[in-house]
Amino acid sequence: MSAPELPRLVLPGDYLGAAEEFIPGRGTYENRGRIFASVLGTAVVDPRDRTVRVDAKNAVPELEEGDLVYGRIDEIKPAMAILTVLTTSTGRRGVPGAPEGTIHISKAREGYTESFSGEFAVGDVVLARVLQVKPSIKLSTAAATLGVLAARCQVCHALLTAGPKDLVCPRCGNRERRKLASGARPGGPSTHAPDSD
């Protein structure tokens, strides 16, 4: 049996199909053998398992493996960096609860990394890929396109700018190194990361 022609946009309470034909998925509910939309969004049928779901408009972000996320480094330990996950790269809303994630030292960059010195510092804003969501959020910045987007001077806390070989503080002249995302120029016009204290 072919998938039903579902409306492109559905409202909460719109009928999506019978429970004997489909399995209710995210954004739906079942009542007396009938499946209805529980949120405003687009109805989608997965033909592989006959699941019907509604992809909500302006949904609260839910992290999944493979997602790209923005995070703020909160603590550096010998073997891991601990950060707050701020939002997904495709979302406009923050991740609920500002969950904590970690980047193991082996996932900071390609190849061997002896220490986090020169990779990240507390307060840096990074772009990272989600490797695992449960039971804890594990992230990676190993790919060249991932890493630090915005960094603050560890002496005076001004935003660092990109110099020829390293990052330079325009206020105190301090020079620092980071594992930058390719194309990122901290302090420059192409940086879209939040300017958080």
List the helices and strands and how they pair.
Elements: E1 15-18, E2 23-24, E3 28-31, E4 34-37, E5 41-46, E6 51-56, E7 68-76, E8 80-88, E9 100-104, E10 125-132, E11 137-140, E12 147-150, E13 161-162, E14 167-168, E15 175-176
Parallel strand pairs: 2-6, 9-11
Antiparallel strand pairs: 1-4, 3-4, 5-6, 7-8, 7-10, 8-9, 10-11, 10-12, 13-14, 14-15
What report would you give on this structure?
The chain has 197 residues and is mainly beta. It folds into two domains: 15-56, RNA polymerase II/Efflux pump adaptor protein, barrel-sandwich hybrid domain (OB fold (Dihydrolipoamide Acetyltransferase, E2P), Beta Barrel), CATH 2.40.50; 68-176, Beta Barrel (OB fold (Dihydrolipoamide Acetyltransferase, E2P)), CATH 2.40.50.140. It has no helices and 15 strands. The protein has a five-stranded mixed barrel with strand order 7-8-9-11-10. The N and C termini lie far apart (56 Å). Residues 188-197 have low confidence and may be disordered.
Low-pLDDT stretches are 188-197
End-to-end Cα distance: 56 Å
Q: What is the β-strand count?
A: 15
Mean pLDDT: 85
Strand order of the largest sheet: 7-8-9-11-10
Biggest sheet features: 5 strands, mixed, barrel
CATH architecture identity of the largest domain: Beta Barrel
Q: Might you state the CATH topology name of the largest domain?
A: OB fold (Dihydrolipoamide Acetyltransferase, E2P)
CATH hierarchy class name of the largest domain:
Mainly Beta
Determine Rg (CA atoms, Å). 22 Å
Number of helices: 0
Structural class: mainly beta
Please tell me the total number of domains. Answer: 2
- The string of secondary-structure elements, in order, is EEEEEEEEEEEEEEE
Approximate helicity band: under 10%
Shape: elongated
CATH-wise, what's the superfamily of the largest domain? Nucleic acid-binding proteins
